Each structure stands twice: as structure tokens, then as C-alpha cells.
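Support case: user asked for a sample of complex input and structure output to validate their parser. Sending the pair below.
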Amino acid sequence: MNFVLIFLITIFSLSLFFYGRSKTKSIAIEKNIKLNALPKFYGYYLVLWCSIPSLVFLLIWSLFEPVIVKSIIIETAANQGAIFNDKNEANLIYEKIKAIHLGTYFGDIDNILRESALAYAKFINLFTNSKVVLIFAIVIVSVIYSLKKINKNNKARDDVEIILKGLLFVSSLIAILTTLGIIFSLLFESIKFFSVINIFDYLFGTNWSPQRAFVRDASSITAAEFEELKDAFGFIPLIAGTTFIAFIAMLVAVPIGLFSGIYMAEYASLKIRRISKPIIEILAGIPTVVYGFFAALTVGPFFRQIGENFGLTVSSESALAAGLIMGIMIIPYVSSLSDDVINSVPQSLRDGSYAIGATKSETIKKVVIPAALPGIIGSILLAVSRAIGETMIVVMAAGLAANLTINPLESTTTITTQIVMILVGDQEFDSPKTQSAFALGLTLFIATLILNYIAQRAVKKYREKYD
Amino acid sequence: MTKEQRLKKRHNAEKRFRFYGLASIFFALLFVLILVHNIFSKGSSAFMKTAINVEVFYDKDLLELEPGSSEEEILEADFFDITIESLLKVYPAKNMDEEDALIELFTTDAEIEIKKAFLNNKNLIGKKINLEITASDDIDQLHKGNYPRDLPEDRRRISNFQLEIYDVLVESKTITKNFNNYFFKNGDSRDPEIAGIGGALVGSFYSILICLLLAFPVAVLASIYLEEFAPKNKITDFIEININNLAAVPSIVYGLLALQILLATIQLPRSTPLVAGITLALMTLPRIIIPCRASLKAVPPSIREGALAVGASKFQSVFHHVVPLALPGTLSGTIIGLAQALGETAPLILIGMVAFVVDIPSTPIDPSSSLPVQVYLWSESAERGFVEKTSATIMMLLSFLIVMNFLAVYLRQKFEKRWN
């Protein structure tokens, strides 16, 4: 139905374009007046008025229709005597009713379901009909309005440009909408989570085992269950594992990234730079799932083999393997940014240092790096925020159990791994276990936001200093 | 310490420092090589499959078919008996156990293969024909040399009896390697020998297409607004801060967003390329806006002033002159953004694309997988045959990424104007 409507609107808009263009031409000739804009702008004007209001209406309608129909149907089903205890059962009944309507339901159909299916058909019909009628009404009203305008020889180009400018502005607002969407969707579930679990139990608990929290209904928890729950969502092991793996990653990425950045900025000839820079940046372009596969199937077993040779027990999902590979993934973030930062250190500083007899490396160590330090630290912080938000490498190579350990040969888990583990497969929406994933997401979002903010400030401040 | 010694020490320090830099770059290059070599050496064998030549006799009585049966009758007919009979002819088995072991050498889809051959040529009834039936993944791995045969029997998936048959087959040259069309054509399967990336390819294609259709226009319009029209005020600043932050938000957070808004609130269908495309579009948007703005910014003001001077409106100067000049940079930024989206896994896992989907999706609202998610799924599987399949999928994924990146570089170098 929607496609038919969109198609009709498109066809109608196109024909209005040609109509508007020729119509204004003929008006101009007939009345012998000078048009206020080129004829094609009158065409555009009609097209915009015909399509935008109706399409926006259609979009909003399609977003809200399923939700409204669902709540109405569930209510009517309840009025007819359908029994459901929570949201999931209500959803199930709704899906059944929908399937009966579509003729794809093969279970037993009792009276309540049949009646509800009929009601559903009625509502769908009503909604579709009113949608079509309303859209036609909107199209007719806006087309009549715009036709009147062009008959009066309005300044069509200015009007078209104002509408288009509005469109441009709306597109740029999508970034704000996305941010709001993220914040609300994370907050919404997190608040539910923190209404069951005390925020301090979450922040300072040292035990993470959400699989224990198979509580179906948050409102009817017994005291024993509550104690159990309180103990299951401790954030400390996760943040410890996350920072630990990120730390190993930075041990790899910072020296290698920094040295290659310095080399490319200060030593490399144009030719070497032109070849090596893109190759290092390949590392950032490889999908993380590929690194994860490599870490889990090659590096992990390799470390285990080496460990066995030295008589060490190395877990095949070790923090070391995950951290090492993550570090390699992050090298280009450190190297490119520090390369840029070092390049923007003014040449006069270097020349001054050379003039008093310093070698190149002394100049770099004593002059260039101190001058570029805020920028370099900014780039390292950005890399840290990459590392703690990275998901696939740790999911595949770092293990699932939450151990509090600082032994890099054991397996640890991270925030992102736990989010994936909790949300993979079927989840019930109202259990604290599912909600805890959103609380973790919120924590992660805030942490990366703070890191990025500080890093961007540092880089910006530094840039201003030398611009 | 004399002056000369000090100088020598300082020069040595200089050399060391330089060496560290070179070594770091070398290490990064070395890692790229190791990774690529590792993937290619594991994955290249997946493009071939092992097949065993079997003589099939389409017995009229066993099939209960007449010459000239309709397509429907054939589809309904039971090919199980002639399948077993044909497979057992490969090697003399003495008892039930040995018969089972013999049949285990072949793929579980042997019956379907025999049926398909018949559907292609309906005149085969009552005739004999030699067919190449796909071998089971254990035999496949053994034949490709990925499976050690010198393990003790109880630790091996292939019994001594099966090895004996295998050796006879190799000697008589009835076991062959063919091009693995299943790998490209089939959907996912629990059996490695018939599992393919067909479904994942189509799923990825739809997701990226939807991502492109949504993200590209919005990103271009948004960057035009911010670069050319936006007044310098609080709202514009706020939008800019938002875009920069969104570009750095971990991808998994977009998965949570999609789960809550697209699946739970708007109730779009789970595991579908539609939801994946929208999620990836939201994620890619800021990453496209940033290069788009840079390429708009690179167009010198003289172009705009020239247009304005001959009487163009602000809009005309932007859309007739600035945008076409910035287009190559915009396009290459978009392609690089899409390449990142193509390799993105975590948000897709959260929206349920890890579901086991056998069918190849025909529309964007069918459940489906995608290439990176397929890599994740197969890498978690225990069967040895999936290791080469995973590596081969990575090879496909990487080659798409390489093509896209080259296209982006080419577009930029070929069409971008230098202004100084």
C-alpha cells in the first residue's frame, strides 16, 4: 500500500512539474507580464508542495500505526477475556491475532482469538482507508494552495530555496536525533535496571554473573532472590578486564604507532612515506571480525603452545592475545594522528635546535615531542577510547567469564563482550539481565564520550597554539 | 670522555632512534603480510570441493516414476533408496556398520544431488549415469591435506575402514577436486561441505544498499548545510559537536540503539537487512559527513564569488558550482564509509543477524546474515571444515574492501581538482 501511495505521489508530482512550467509560461504570454522566476522554478515549487507534506505524513503515520494498532488490539482482546500476565504474553497473543488475520496461523483458534482477529482486520482496514483519504486530502489542499500561489506570480525561486534550505537543515538535525536516540534508549532501560539493582551495588560489586539473574518479573522478587540479584551485577571485574586489555593494547600500539609516526613525519623520504602510510592504514581498514578470527584461531593457540613449552598454563582465550591484536589494530590511529601533529610543529623550532648543534633525534626528543605533546596525548586518548569500545576481537578472543585477574595469560572479559553475550539470541525485554546490557552500554557511552571530549580539546588547544 | 667519543655516542643514539622508527613501520608491514598469508593459506582450499564419482542407476521400480513424469511427481518421489544403493556400490561393505561408515563418506545432501541431476535430464529413467557426489567434510578435509591421518583411530573422526576406502578411491582416481560452486550459491548449513556464503552475500548487499540510499543523501545535504548555509550560532555548534562525537561512539552502542528503537519500539522485523541497513546508515552518517565537509571546504571561495558575481543566487552558486566540484571527494568519502560499514559486525549481532538462516533472502525484509557475521558464526563452529570456509569468507570480504578502497582512491585522483 505504501509503495503504491509513494508511486502515485511521485507520478503526480512529476506531472505537476510539467504543468507548472507550461502554465506559468502561458500566463506570462497571456497577460504579458514578466515572471518573477524562471518557469521551471514554478514546477519545482509545485513538486515540493505536492510531495513533502504527504510523504512526511506517510512516514509519521507508518511509524506510529503498528504501535497504536497493537495497543488497541491488545486492549480489545483483554476486554473479550484474553488472559495475559505480562508484556511478553500480550505480544504473543498479538502475534497470533496477526497471523490469523494473514492466514498463516495453524494452531487452535478459540473464540477470543477469532473475535480479536476480526477486530484486527477491521482496524487495519479502517487505518488503511483513513490513511489513503488523509493523504489525498493533504495532497489536494497543498496543491490547491501552491497553484493559487503560482497563479499570483509569486517569487517561486526564493520560495523553493527556502523550502530546500529547510530540508538541508532537517538533514543536519539527524545527527542530533541520533544522539538523542542513543541517550534515550540507553537511559530508558538503564533506569529500569537501576530501579531493581542499586547503582552502588553495580558500580562497586566485584562479582559479575548475570546468568544467575533469571528473574522473570522485577516487581515480584523475593528477598532471597533480591540478595542473589544484588550480587550478580558487579561492574568491577568488567571495568578491570576492559582496562587491562586496553592497557596491553596500548603497550603495543603506543610505541609502535608513535615511532612510526615520528619516522614518517621526520625521516621518511616522500617515496617511502607514500608507500608505507597507506599500508599502515590498511590495519585500520581490516574489519575487526578478521582480527578476532586471527586472534582466536592463530595467536591464542600459538601463545598456548609457547607457554606449554615453558611449562606455563596459558588460557587459549588469553587477555594477552586479545590485547596484542587489538594493539596492532590501533597502531594506525596513533601513528596517523601523531604524524599529523608532529608535522604541524613549526619548522622554526627545529631549525633553532639544529642551529645550536643538536642531532635530528635530539631535536625530536627534546624539542618536537615536548611541543607536540598535548596533541600526541590527545591521539593516544582517542586510541584508548577505540580500545575500550572495540567489540569483536574481545568477543572472539578474550573469554566470557568475569575473572578479576592481572595475569595476562588468563582469560578476562570486557564490557563489550558482556553486552554481546547478554543480547545474543532470544532475550526477554523486561528482565534485569537484558537491562543490564543497556546499563553497560550507557557506561561505555559515557566513558568514551569523556575520553573523546578530553582528547579533542587537547588536540584543538594544541592546534590553536601553532596556527 | 673525549669530544670524539661523545660525538660518536650521539651519532649512535641517532642511528638507534632512526632504527626504532624503521623497525616499527617494518613490524606493521610484517603483520599485514602475516595476516594476509595466514588467511590465504587457510582459505584458498575452500574454493575447491572434493567429490566422489558414483554410478547412479535411476531404477524405475525403486523410484516409482514413469518416463514422462511431471516435475511435481519427480519432486515428490523418494530418491533415498537409489541414493543408498548407488553409494553402497562404491566399495563392498560387509555389515551394517561398514555400510553406515561408507555412506558417511558422502554429504548428507547426496540424495538432493541425485534428484537434481535427474531433474536436469528427465530421460535418465531406467538408465545409468556417473555423477560426482560431494564428499563429506571429513573426507574433504582429509583430501585437501588439512586433516592428520596419523592420529590413533579413537581420536580421529575418520575410522580405519573409511581410510581404507579413501585410499582405494584415490588409487582408482574416482575422488576428484572440483570448483566449489556451493560456496557461492548456498546459504548457511550445519554441514561444512554444503555451507555457502550466498545468503550472507545477498544480505550484505541489501544492507549496504539501504545504508547507501539513506546515508549518502542525508550526509551530503547535511554537510552542504553546515559548510555553506549554517549561520554561526549555538545550534550549528551543537550539531557539529554531535557529529564529531557520533563518529567516535563505539559501534556496539548503535546496536543497542537499533535494538531499542528499531526493533522494540517501531517493531521492524528482526535479523533483516532492512534493520541492518538503517543501523549502519546511522553509524556511517557522521563518518561520511566529515570527509564531505572537508571536500566542500576545499573548493576555493573564488568559485562561489564568481557565480554570485554573475547573478546566481546562493543556492545556484552552491548547487551548480561548488557541489559538482566537491563531488569526487564526497563520493570517495562515502565509499570509504560504506567499506567500514561492510566490515561492521557488532551492531549486526545485536539486531539478531546471528540467527541460523538457511534460505537466501529475496527481499530486504527476509531474515538474513551478512559477510562479517558469517565469519563470526563459522569461527565459533567446531567442525574443521569451517576454518577454511571462514578464511575464504574473509578473503571475499577483504577483496570487496580492497576494490572499494581502490575505487575511492581512483575517484579522488582522477577527478579531484587541485586548487593551488
